Amino acid sequence: MIAAEKLNQRLVYFLLFITSLAINLTLALLINPVPTLYDEFSYLIGADLLSQGKICAEQHPFWQHFESFMLISQPAYCSKYLPLQSIILALGQILFQKPIFGLCFIS
């Protein structure tokens, strides 16, 4: 009797996981989120750099004109934040060409 309960419990967890993943993927396909905050742009720049296999890019010759307070422009061009969020977005960008799909697999 206990083994059957454990099997049912595992089946419920698996179905909950699959349902959550399907809903997230469907919403990611239907809704194309646009970054609006500086943080989001910084994470996307970090994801772009990581998906290209770089940690940071070269400093732009006119970096003073493109300076933002969420990006590091000198001595190299990179995101200001820790890389975990950017790694997750880069994973989605590498596998599916859309960074939002990386977030679907952690929710």
Detailed description of the structure:
With 107 residues, this protein is mainly alpha-helical. It has helices spanning 2-30, 38-51, 84-96, 100-104; strands at 71-72, 78-79. Strands 1-2 form a two-stranded antiparallel sheet. A hairpin with a 5-residue loop joins strand 1 and strand 2. Helix 2 (38-51) packs across helix 3. The longest helix is centred in the first third of the chain and has 29 residues, at 2-30. It is elongated. The protein starts with a helix and ends with a helix. The mean pLDDT is 87.
Low-confidence stretches: none
Rounded to an integer in angstroms, the radius of gyration calculated over CA atoms is 19 Å
What's the β-strand tally? 2
Q: What structural class do the secondary elements suggest?
A: mainly alpha
Helicity level = 55-70%
Question: End-to-end span in angstroms?
Answer: 32 Å
Q: Provide the residue-averaged pLDDT.
A: 87
What does the secondary structure layout of this molecule look like, with pairings?
Layout: H1 2-30, H2 38-51, E1 71-72, E2 78-79, H3 84-96, H4 100-104
Antiparallel strand pairs: 1-2
Helix pairs in contact: 2-3
